[in-house]
Amino acid sequence: MARKLGINEAKQRAGRFCAFRERSPNELFEKLQSWGLPDEDAASIVAELTKEGFVDEQRFANAYCNDKFQFNSWGKQKIRAHIYSHKLSDQAVTKALDRIDPQAYENRLFDLAKSKWDKLEKEDGMKRKQKTVAYLAQKGYEMDLIWSAISKVEDESR
């Protein structure tokens, strides 16, 4: 049988857990629960660590959105769908998504569209367009931006 974790020890472990990388308040709460802490104790530790600056909802949302855009090339729709599991406020998520540079966003979308388009050179025109749209939609980009990027790619390849 595992020994019971005390409040002070749990707070220290939680502080180390948060120091490793950005964590959402919900992620920390679930980790504390997994260590066997009652909900009230877990909530008080989350509140203390938030007050001390170890956990910050907006900072987490900013980091998450930036990382998923920069490293995974996800669009805003996919980021919003995946960040939902962290139970952040809509305001924090919207603010974080608004921090993505619109020009960088369009450039990334165009680069993805061009890359996919070029890989599908053996496909006929309609099939090629269909597969490129599906790929970009799966990446979480907005349809109006997708069609705009595809028309630019088509114009460029003529």
Commentary on this structure:
74% of the residues lie in helices and 0% in strands. It has 3 domains: 7-51, Arc Repressor Mutant, subunit A, CATH 1.10.10; 57-98; 102-157. It has 158 residues and is an all-alpha fold.
Descriptive tags:
mainly alpha, Arc Repressor Mutant, subunit A, 74% helix
Q: Total number of helical segments?
A: 9
Oligomer kind: single chain
| Domain module tally | 3
Radius of gyration: 21 Å
Outline the fold blueprint.
Blueprint: H1 7-20, H2 25-34, H3 39-51, H4 57-72, H5 76-83, H6 90-98, H7 102-119, H8 125-138, H9 143-157
Helix pairs in contact: 2-3, 4-5, 4-6, 7-8, 7-9, 8-9
Gist?
The chain is mainly α and 158 residues long.
